[in-house]
């Protein structure tokens, strides 16, 4: 079952000496990130605050808990909400804002810095693999060249490029042609270079996002209903389909599915994935955890936050908080703990 962190917050707020602004920040963090799910074999996957947990008792069962802690944030000020964000270190990220703006590096420790030339604008998407950052612009895919301190052409396609991902084996690109979306696989050679000859993997009749996991698995998720998440292997062959309904069945009647969209997927660890859905008419969000084994679980919250990229090896994740008066890019750290919890009926 899901358990919110609101109760833990209420139990401690009378004894804290935090300022009003810090209390609000703490409330938003706990309310947004306290997720606990019951999975197969009495195992839980959760995202929560660092609130104290009661000691285990003999009647409690083993639980796997994922704790997500906010580290710092970078105010967006007059900038629009970024279209894409990738982490380039544990405390810095690059953000693409679309037409008229270059890619910027954002860090709480320094001012905004244009990546490459400030006249090099119009990037609509970013993705990365290891330490290499790739960018999308119109029908082009570019890679960042450290020696030239600029994005340089990598692939040129005939249609608009709308999403991308990279793995050890290939570059995965989604292009839009009219109302259809096509996934292409561009193989890598042994030296890491990318072949310009692609293999067409699949055609979709609605927008999709793509995420390459560390184990070689590729996830392709519908942005809109029916919210399928498809698993592909390194060669692009289908290995399964997940149903990722963000809204509980008893709430479908009161939520217009046309206004609920997936705003992206990020890798956690061990093949797990976190997917964020948003109701475009409100601040309602659903966080859906797809474990590598077992059913997906979800948590509804009313904070306009979304997660956009992660660095699994260092357990870092970056998100955008669009709360009024708080708009910022926020950095988080996660940790996986094995704890004991009394089984809930």
Layout of strands and helices, then pairs:
Blueprint: H1 6-12, H2 20-33, E1 35-38, E2 44-48, E3 60-75, E4 84-89, E5 92-96, E6 104-107, E7 110-114, E8 125-129, E9 132-137, E10 140-145, E11 150-156, E12 160-166, E13 170-177, E14 180-187, E15 199-204, E16 208-212, E17 218-222, E18 228-232, E19 238-243, E20 260-267, E21 273-279, E22 285-290, E23 297-301, E24 305-311, E25 316-321, E26 328-342
Parallel strand pairs: 2-3
Antiparallel strand pairs: 1-2, 3-26, 4-5, 5-6, 6-7, 8-9, 9-10, 10-11, 12-13, 13-14, 14-15, 16-17, 17-18, 18-19, 20-21, 21-22, 22-23, 24-25, 25-26
> What structural class results from the helix and strand content?
mainly beta
Q: Please report the distance between the alpha carbons of the first and last residues.
A: 8 Å
CA gyration radius, whole angstroms? 20 Å
Helix count, per DSSP? 2
**Average of the residue pLDDT scores:** 77
- Tell me about the biggest sheet? 6 strands, mixed
Q: What helical percentage do the residues reach?
A: under 10%
Q: Can you count the beta strands?
A: 26
Strand content: over 45%
Overall body shape: globular
Stretches with pLDDT under 50, minimum 5 residues = 1-64, 339-345
Strand/helix succession:
HHEEEEEEEEEEEEEEEEEEEEEEEEEE
Description:
This protein is mainly beta and 345 residues long. It is 6% helix and 50% strand. The protein has helices spanning 6-12, 20-33, and strands at 35-38, 44-48, 60-75, 84-89, 92-96, 104-107, 110-114, 125-129, 132-137, 140-145, 150-156, 160-166, 170-177, 180-187, 199-204, 208-212, 218-222, 228-232, 238-243, 260-267, 273-279, 285-290, 297-301, 305-311, 316-321, 328-342. It has a six-stranded mixed β-sheet with strand order 1-2-3-26-25-24. Strands 4-5-6-7 form a four-stranded antiparallel β-sheet, with no helix packed on it. A hairpin with a 5-residue loop joins β16 and β17 (218-222). The model is unreliable at 1-64 and 339-345 (pLDDT under 50).
């Amino acid at each position: 079952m899901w358990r919110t962190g609101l109760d833990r917050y209420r139990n401690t707020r009378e004894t804290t000496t935090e300022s009003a602004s810090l209390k609000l920040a703490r409330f938003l963090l706990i309310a947004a990130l306290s997720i606990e799910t019951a999975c197969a074999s009495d195992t839980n996957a959760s995202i929560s605050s660092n609130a104290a947990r009661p000691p285990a008792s003999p009647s409690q069962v083993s639980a796997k808990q994922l704790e997500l802690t906010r580290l710092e944030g970078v105010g967006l000020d007059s900038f629009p909400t970024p279209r894409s964000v990738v982490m380039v270190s544990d405390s810095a990220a690059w953000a693409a804002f679309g037409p008229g703006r270059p890619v910027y590096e954002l860090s709480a420790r320094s001012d905004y810095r244009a990546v490459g030339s400030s006249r090099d604008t119009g990037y609509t998407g970013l993705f990365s693999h290891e330490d290499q950052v790739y960018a999308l612009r119109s029908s082009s895919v570019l890679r960042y060249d450290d020696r030239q301190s600029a994005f340089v052409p990598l692939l040129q396609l005939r249609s608009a490029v709308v999403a991308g991902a990279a793995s050890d084996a290939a570059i995965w690109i989604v292009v839009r042609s009219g109302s259809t979306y096509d996934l292409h696989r561009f193989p890598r050679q042994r030296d890491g270079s990318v072949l310009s000859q692609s293999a067409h993997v699949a055609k979709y009749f609605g927008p999709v996002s793509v995420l390459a996991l560390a184990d070689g698995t590729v996830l392709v998720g519908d942005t809109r209903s029916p919210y399928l998440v498809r698993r592909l292997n390194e060669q692009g062959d289908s290995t399964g389909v997940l149903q990722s309904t963000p809204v509980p069945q008893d709430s479908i009647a009161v939520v217009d599915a046309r206004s609920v969209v997936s705003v992206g997927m990020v890798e956690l660890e061990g093949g797990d994935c976190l997917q964020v859905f948003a109701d475009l008419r409100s601040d309602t969000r659903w966080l859906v955890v797809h474990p590598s084994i077992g059913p997906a679980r979800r948590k509804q919250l009313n904070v306009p936050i979304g997660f956009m990229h992660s660095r699994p090896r260092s357990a870092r994740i970056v998100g955008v908080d669009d709360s009024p008066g708080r708009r910022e890019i926020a950095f988080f750290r996660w940790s996986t703990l094995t704890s004991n919890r009394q089984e809930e009926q």
